[in-house]
């Protein structure tokens, strides 16, 4: 009996997903669109094409990239080597 119950618990999500996919393809009401799943960045929120924060972030990344193209080393603190 417990084996049958465990099998039922394991198979039921697959059966539910199959039934939902079948219903979505048949009726057209449960269609998935790309706009339903908008991209979001961690600690930045939603990402849209006209987002000012995204443009600022791209500008900052471009500034960092061009800085390392001109000077490909990380700036040091000034105290290099072992001093006593």
TrEMBL record:
Q: What keywords appear on the UniProt entry? A: Signal
Per the UniProt entry, the signal peptide is 1-17
The name this protein goes by in its record: Uncharacterized protein
């Amino acid at each position: 009996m417990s084996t049958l119950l465990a099998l039922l618990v394991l198979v039921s999500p697959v059966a539910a997903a199959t039934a939902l996919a079948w219903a979505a393809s048949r009726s057209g009401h449960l269609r998935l669109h790309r706009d339903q799943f908008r991209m979001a960045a961690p600690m930045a929120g939603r990402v849209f094409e006209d987002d000012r924060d995204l443009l600022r972030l791209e500008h900052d990344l471009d500034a960092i990239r061009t800085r390392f193209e001109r000077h490909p080393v990380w700036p040091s603190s000034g105290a290099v080597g072992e001093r006593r």
